[in-house]
């Protein structure tokens, strides 16, 4: 049992034995009052050992008193392996355990519902591709190219209205805005069941794009109000991964629904009716279930609510004129935005056209929906593995490059393979790396951006969804069933993204070397003065963030 574990045990069971903050206490004096079991004694206690009560301190400098740690840590194992050995009480380790216990409650009661909501966000976005395998455009009196136009308009409206919808979400609150827009796009999805003609097709897709636009930024801002940034990375990956899972789930659901023989409704009508109806139902559940924020989270104790509010509050500085000007003038942001658009073309295009590409590999319309599941699952698994490795190694650039190289290898296989079976395997490899760049780019930018600029930077990066407009125009019916020309053009986007991200990482390394030279010539007082200056619009401050993470 380490010393930190000893003090944690005291904190939980008898906080009264601890001295005031800053004082020390002899472990010999405390030993008789410890609650260790006979099978787990405290063998480290020897004459002369002392512990200083430094108070429990959160990683973001939010202080906690000894008495406050008891309700947060109730039930913790005093011998938790995360507590470090040492002569002093490891206050940060104790706070870390309390934070992880609180995060677990949020992970159980909040995160799964938001993940499910985003899953249906992806379902209603891409189910038009599943419907097309059942003759959707023919049945409503449209041409196959109208499907491409409708999909392009969806992404155009999605990008244009995203900042406005996110602003409404910030004003109204995620608890209200997320269920409202979800219910609205669910209603429009149901309405697609009964549309006829090109105009109604374009109108419904534009409306779905408009209503879906605010979900992702509002939900991320909502999550950020519960988690600290360094706790958020894996949750964002899990959240974004539903974009890939939606393809798999939609394919499996479509396969089941399309086998239903309805006397009146066509298979694609049943698909829209079912998925739209479930979306509306989930919106009602979200309205009831979601708390307004951490301060009203019904699944947290009073102490946990207060602690979550305090630990997140320092991450919300206001943006200044200087922050805005520096962000807009930063060429690196616009450069990586272009890279992100190129890298996102495959994932956005295949979110709609995957069943059609699979159908071109020799499968029937019904089989194509089922066989679109494994490639989509590969995409989700690839994203989770790359995201985990990226967080574990604290590195972004090489992970994005590696994912793009994997996509490149798979896509070359799809284009060059001579058999449908080989093409299908290569498609799975291709999608394994196709969903990685967007969330890791967002995490990369977030980690390299001052807190006051982070929202603006990520908002600009959100224009990466323009990739959906490009991807939608590639896979036209004239290229069916092999889609060789669209796949070759997609290959060009992947190559451009690969070269772009490699040069972007090299550029950050060069900036770091330049900063090191300049910072070495500055005194600490000069750097502090520069940091406090939020009005000057001259040369960029060297002290903003130190060095870029790679």
Automatic annotation (TrEMBL):
Looking at the UniProt record for this protein, which Gene Ontology cellular component terms does it annotate, in alphabetical order?
membrane
Q: Where is the Major facilitator superfamily (MFS) profile domain?
A: 110-515
* Transmembrane portions of the chain: 153-171, 177-195, 207-227, 239-258, 270-290, 333-358, 370-388, 400-417, 424-444, 456-475, 487-504
Membrane topology according to the record? Multi-pass membrane protein
Position of the signal peptide: none
Q: List UniProt keywords, sorted A-Z.
A: Membrane, Transmembrane, Transmembrane helix, Transport
Q: Which InterPro entries match?
A: MFS (IPR011701), MFS_dom (IPR020846), MFS_trans_sf (IPR036259)
Where's it found, cell-wise? Membrane
What GO molecular function annotations does the UniProt record carry, in alphabetical order?
transmembrane transporter activity
Major localization listed first in the record, in broad terms: membrane
The source's superkingdom equals Eukaryota
Protein name (record):
Major facilitator superfamily transporter
């Amino acid at each position: 049992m380490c010393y930190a574990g000893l003090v944690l045990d005291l904190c939980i069971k008898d906080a009264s034995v601890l001295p005031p903050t800053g004082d020390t206490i002899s472990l010999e004096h405390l030993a008789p009052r410890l609650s260790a079991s006979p099978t787990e004694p405290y063998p480290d206690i020897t004459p002369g050992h002392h512990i200083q009560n430094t108070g429990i301190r959160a990683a973001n400098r939010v202080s906690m008193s000894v008495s406050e740690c008891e309700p947060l840590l109730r039930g913790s194992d005093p011998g938790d392996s995360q507590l470090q050995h040492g002569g002093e009480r490891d206050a940060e380790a104790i706070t870390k355990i309390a934070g992880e216990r609180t995060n677990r409650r949020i992970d159980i009661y909040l995160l799964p519902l938001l993940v499910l909501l985003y899953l249906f966000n992806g379902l209603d976005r891409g189910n038009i591709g599943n419907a097309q395998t059942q003759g959707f455009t023919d049945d409503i009196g449209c041409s196959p190219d109208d499907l491409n136009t409708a999909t392009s308009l969806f992404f155009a409206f999605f990008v244009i209205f995203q900042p406005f919808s996110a602003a409404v979400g910030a004003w109204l609150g995620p608890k209200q805005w997320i269920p409202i827009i979800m219910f609205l796009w669910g209603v429009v999805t149901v309405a697609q069941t009964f549309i006829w003609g090109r105009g109604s097709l374009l109108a419904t897709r534009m409306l779905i794009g408009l209503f879906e636009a605010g979900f992702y930024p509002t939900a991320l801002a909502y999550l950020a109000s519960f988690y600290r940034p360094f706790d958020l990375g894996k949750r964002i990956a899990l959240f974004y991964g539903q974009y890939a899972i939606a393809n798999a789930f939609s394919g499996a659901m479509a396969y089941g629904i399309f086998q239903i023989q309805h006397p009146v409704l066509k298979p694609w009508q049943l698909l829209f009716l079912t998925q739209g109806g479930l979306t509306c139902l989930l919106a009602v559940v979200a309205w009831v279930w979601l708390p307004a924020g951490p301060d009203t989270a019904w699944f947290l104790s009073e102490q946990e609510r207060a602690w979550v509010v305090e630990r997140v509050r320092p991450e919300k500085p206001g943006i200044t004129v200087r922050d805005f000007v520096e962000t807009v003038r930063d060429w690196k942001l616009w450069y990586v935005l272009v890279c992100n658009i190129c890298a996102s073309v495959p994932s956005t295009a295949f979110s709609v056209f995957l069943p059609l590409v699979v159908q071109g590999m020799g499968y029937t319309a019904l089989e194509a929906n089922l066989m679109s599941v494994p490639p989509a699952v590969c995409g989700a698994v690839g994203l989770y593995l790359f995201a985990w490795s990226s967080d574990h190694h604290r590195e972004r650039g090489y992970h994005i490059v590696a994912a793009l190289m994997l996509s490149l290898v798979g896509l070359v296989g799809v284009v060059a393979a001579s058999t449908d079976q080989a093409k299908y395997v290569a498609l799975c490899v291709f999608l394994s790396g196709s969903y990685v760049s967007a969330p890791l780019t967002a995490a990369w930018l977030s980690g390299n951006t001052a807190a006051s600029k982070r929202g603006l930077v990520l908002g600009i990066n959100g224009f990466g969804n323009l990739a959906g407009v490009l991807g939608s125009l590639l896979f036209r019916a004239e290229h069916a069933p092999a889609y060789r020309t669209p796949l070759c053009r997609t290959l060009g986007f992947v190559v451009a993204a690969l070269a772009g991200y490699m040069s972007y990482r090299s550029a950050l390394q060069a900036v770091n070397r330049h900063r090191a030279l300049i910072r070495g010539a500055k005194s600490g007082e000069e750097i502090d003065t520069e940091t406090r200056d939020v009005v000057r619009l001259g040369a960029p401050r060297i002290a903003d963030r130190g060095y870029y993470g790679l």
